[in-house]
Write a structure and sequence with these properties.
It is a single chain. By secondary structure, this protein is α/β, with parallel strands linked by helices. It folds into three domains: 5-207, Class I glutamine amidotransferase (GATase) domain (Rossmann fold); 216-414, Rossmann fold, CATH 3.40.50.620; 418-529, GMP Synthetase, Chain A, domain 3. 32% of the residues lie in helices and 23% in strands. The protein is built from 14 helices and 18 strands. Strands 2-1-3-4-9-8-7-5-6 form a nine-stranded mixed β-sheet, sandwiched between helices. A five-stranded parallel β-sheet has the order 12-11-10-13-14, sandwiched between helices. Strand 16 (480-493) and strand 17 (501-502) form a beta hairpin. Helix 5 (216-231) packs across helix 6 (244-257), helix 5 (216-231) packs across helix 11 and helix 6 packs across helix 11. Bound molecules: xanthosine-5'-monophosphate (XMP). Xanthosine-5'-monophosphate is lined by residues 409, 411-413, 417, 463, 497, 534, 538-540. Xanthosine-5'-monophosphate binds next to loops.
Length: 542
């Protein structure tokens, strides 16, 4: 059965993934495609709705991203947002011009004509003259929106009517009911437009007529069915890192094909404290999942390779290459497999420039370079369509422990990028122990706060860990002089991990952490808190 979907045509705006997210929150499946996608391909996709995103260009300029008129003649409802709205008008005979001033920020929007798009929206009474609001709710015609544009629609295209405006923007929204075309100048996808989600709901569910049956349990169920059909009695190999994505992929594959799945988990000795055992507890023979689990304890091997290496990039390279060596050896023991599974998720696909139009940020490979080293016929990526929080939801649905599902990001090279200078088994022990104490105290304080206040504390970091510096300094313990290492504590708030700020963790929590680390971790006599934001710092130390 064909899955009901809405597509987002990406014109290079910054909120494009967010648009797709919001549509999915309405229980409608949504995919992002480049504006360069051929019209035939779009017809083939058979979407129930098409959303045109914002973008940085001016649609009237030579060479600006555009789409042919045909798009608006398919009989499929089209919703243009910001640049998408301007483009719709431009292509269909309206006029777009540069405004005197940029309209930016939270703005009052007046809804002045009944529209399915604004069904049930209009937060507050307002006294606007000349309103033609023919709904029976005369007092409901004002709401807030997030504006960010220089260009504006100065003339709507033939067939359209204006349905909303702001003080500075004569066409905040317009519609052509007969052709089912809708244009919104502001950004309903961002939270600054408080009722934006309802507008998108109105569009996908009411205007496009989507049934809204995209749910995580149905995703899990249909994925299991698809995997079974595809794999048949074939063999599948998966590199399990213990991270969220590969763990959820493992859970899904295990439910679908059981022992036809082999997971190789390489313990490179640079995992967090007890992490290897925790992964084994979930996926190993004593866990709840039916699969072949191979744990390779490669600690010694890694430490040997890393011995004497000081340069951060060399460390990263060695850790990455060694992973491929170890995995290759294991794969050879297993022999040819039919499929290599990967935990690629939707943002990886989009970031690699395969989905939408946003610039290629970095090419992603969850298991960097593995395909070249394994004898297999095809790659399967069961999470390719999911956003991170959907992956987490799927994980919970599959019965993975919450600790694993909600764990914070952990870099592939692990503690290798959190130990300055040479990596040794003893330094790994120090940073593991200090990090475990730090996470324990932060988690406890956050939990206590939540119990009292019913929400996470303001200071709750998105990523927090301990790193080992190469500084040794003099201290005194009991009556003894010490000459030991300094631990650095890092905690950052970030949305996208591209920029970050240090968190304002309460001083008494930090003091407790300091005191415990110095008392409990042999080899440490000083604790620093890292205040550096990113940029200029990075989140990891190396
Ligand atoms: P930086 O240090 O670049 O980190 O500010 C940004 C985010 O990326 C994570 N990170 C990595 N993740 N492999 C990964 O899978 C890596 O080599 C790697 N390096 C950094 C880091 O933990 C942070 O969340």
């Amino acid at each position: 059965m064909e899955r009901e979907k809405v597509i987002v045509l990406d014109f290079g705006g910054q909120y494009n993934q967010l648009v797709a997210r919001r549509v999915r929150e309405c229980n409608v499946y949504c995919e992002i495609y480049s504006y360069k996608t051929d019209i035939e391909k779009i017809k083939q996709l058979n979407p129930k709705g098409i959303i045109l995103t914002g973008g940085p260009n001016s649609c009237y300029e030579e060479g600006a991203p555009t789409y042919s008129r045909q798009l608006f003649e398919l009989g499929i409802p089209v919703l243009g947002l910001c640049y998408g709205a301007q483009l719709m008008m431009h292509v269909l005979g309206g006029k777009v011009e540069r405004a005197q001033n940029r309209e930016y920020g939270k703005t009052k929007v007046f809804i002045n004509r009944k529209s399915g798009l604004f069904h049930g929206i209009g937060d507050k009474c307002s006294d606007i003259e000349g309103i033609i609001y023919d709904d029976h709710r005369h007092d409901d015609h004002e709401t807030l929106c997030w504006m960010s544009h220089f260009d504006y629609i100065s003339k709507i295209a033939p067939g359209f009517e204006i349905i909303a405006h702001t003080a500075d923007c004569p066409v905040a929204a317009a519609q052509d009911l007969s052709r089912k075309l809708y244009a919104i100048q502001f950004h309903p996808e961002v939270l600054h437009t408080p009722r934006g989600k309802d507008m998108l709901y109105n569009y996908v569910r009411n205007i496009c007529g989507c049934a809204g049956d995209w749910r995580m349990d149905s995703f899990v169920e249909s994925s299991i069915k698809n995997i079974r059909e595809k794999v048949g009695d074939g063999k599948v190999l998966l590199a399990l890192s213990g991270g969220v994505d590969s763990s959820v992929a493992a859970g899904l594959l295990s439910k679908a094909i059981g022992k036809q799945l082999t997971c190789v988990f390489v313990d490179h000795g640079l995992l967090r404290k007890n992490e290897g055992d925790e992964v084994e507890a979930v996926f190993g023979p004593k866990g709840d999942f039916d699969l072949n689990f191979i744990r390779v304890n490669a600690q010694e091997r890694y430490y040997k390779k890393l011995s004497g290496v000081l340069d951060p990039e060399s460390k990263r390279k060695i850790i990455g290459e060694e992973f491929i060596r170890v995995f290759e050896e294991e794969a050879k023991k297993i022999g040819a497999v039919d499929y290599l599974a990967q935990g690629t998720i939707y943002p990886d696909v989009v970031e690699s420039g395969l989905g939408g139009e946003s610039a290629v940020i970095k090419s992603h490979h969850n298991v960097g370079g593995l395909p070249d080293f394994v004898d297999f016929k095809e790659i399967i990526e069961p999470l390719r369509d999911l956003f991170k929080d959907e992956v987490r939801q799927a994980g919970l649905e599959l019965g993975l422990p919450e600790r694993l599902v909600f764990r914070q990001p952990f870099p592939g090279p692990g503690l290798g990028v959190r130990i300055a200078d040479e990596i040794t088994a003893d330094k790994v022990r120090i940073v593991q122990d200090a990090d475990a104490i730090y996470r324990d105290e932060v988690d406890t304080a956050a939990k206590e706060y939540k119990t009292t206040n019913g929400k996470d504390p303001e200071w709750m970091p998105n990523q927090y860990f301990a790193a080992l510096t190469n500084m040794r300094s003099v201290g005194v313990m009991g009556d003894e002089r010490t000459f030991d290492y300094a631990i650095a504590l890092r905690a950052v708030k970030t949305v996208d991990f591209m920029t970050a700020e240090a968190c304002d963790i309460p001083f008494e929590v930090l003091q407790r952490v300091m005191s415990r680390i110095i008392n409990e971790v042999r080899g440490v006599n000083r604790v620093f808190y890292d205040l550096t934001s990113k940029p200029p710092g990075t989140i990891e130390f190396l």
